[in-house]
Design goal:
This protein has 304 residues and is α/β, with parallel strands linked by helices. The protein is built from ten helices and ten strands. It folds into two domains: 176 residues, 3-Layer(aba) Sandwich (D-Maltodextrin-Binding Protein, domain 2), CATH 3.40.190; 98 residues, Periplasmic binding protein-like II (D-Maltodextrin-Binding Protein, domain 2). It has a five-stranded mixed beta sheet with strand order 8-7-9-6-10, with helices on both faces.
Length: 304
């Protein structure tokens, strides 16, 4: 999750595939995020244009045939690069499908995360797409079209029986400086010690792939990370990992567009169309992030 407080609350999942391959098969390490033959790649969907929704797109965007999208990578599985340098991920597949619904082709432009919303305000980008948390503070600057719900999710080795709300004495992996490191796990640990139970041993790693690797190898009892990051790690582990408890502390992801732009309503209708026809769910399942799917897309759905 990328919140209003931090450019990236959740962990950046760099080289997860390589690290899991190393842990599970003993292969040599690699920096290539898409080196494994079992990798998740872009989904192949036939998405039909919907003329009524396309008609709601602002004329300048519709006439250009291109939707300029500001994106910050890497943030697996939402937006990251394949071994060939192509920007791929759940967000990318969904935005591509949205473009097909409204009859324009998304053109993904890399940017520093903090510069995307200002660029949307200035008209440099038509829309931002970088796992933005829709917050009340951000809604003062831009409008958001919600498309996903992300929170915190724990993972465990299959059958381990870890309860995130009663993990006293357990070893829990986190990425350093994430909200899981600074707030969530410490709060759970304090609840343990306040009740006279052993503290949680928080095991910090510089990168999320190291935390996942530690869990796969059994060096820790559980891992805490943003829900789509955890879901993707579970999917890539090929059965070695599973969720430990439900997703909690959820907030919506949204696409930022210029305040008052009719593009917001066109995007909302496109997302809702994909939700209703099942292709949204299909894309989410392809990337293993279906736990955060939503039934209704709204404009400005911040919860805080």
């Amino acid at each position: 999750m990328r919140s209003a407080k931090s450019s990236r609350i959740g962990a950046v999942l760099v080289a997860l595939v390589a690290m899991l391959a190393l842990a599970l098969s003993g292969c040599s390490n690699t920096d290539d995020e898409s080196s494994s033959s079992g990798d998740v790649g872009p989904i192949n969907l036939e998405v039909a244009k919907v003329d009524d929704i396309a008609a709601a797109v602002p004329a300048d965007v519709r006439d250009s045939g291109t939707l300029t999208v500001g994106v910050n990578v890497p943030y697996s599985p939402n937006e990251f690069k394949s071994s060939s340098g192509e920007i791929i991920g759940f967000d990318v597949d969904l935005m591509t499908a949205i473009g097909q619904v409204i009859g324009v082709t998304p053109e993904f432009k890399e940017s520093e995360f903090d510069k995307i919303i200002p660029a949307v305000q200035q008209g440099t980008y038509d829309v931002g797409m970088s796992s933005f948390t829709d917050s009340e503070e951000r809604e003062k600057q831009v409008d958001f079209v919600t498309y996903y719900s992300a929170g915190v999710q724990w993972a465990q080795q299959k059958g381990a029986g870890i309860d995130p709300n009663n993990a006293c004495g357990k070893r829990v992996a986190v990425q350093a400086t994430t909200v899981e490191d600074t707030d969530e796990v410490p709060a759970k640990s304090k609840a343990c010690t306040d009740a006279g139970k052993p503290a949680i041993t928080k095991v910090k790693f510089d990168s999320q792939d190291e935390a996942v690797n530690a869990l796969v190898l059994g060096k820790v009892d559980a891992m805490s990370a943003d829900s789509p990051v955890t879901a993707y790690a579970i999917k890539k582990s090929e059965g070695a990992l599973e969720p430990a408890g439900p997703v909690f502390a959820s907030a919506p992801y949204g696409y930022p567009v210029k305040k008052g732009s009719p593009l917001a309503e066109a995007l909302r209708q496109a997302v809702q169309h994909l939700i209703d026809n099942g292709q949204y769910r299909e894309i989410a399942e392809h990337w293993g992030v279906q736990a955060g799917t939503i039934p209704t897309a709204v404009i400005n759905g911040a919860v805080s």
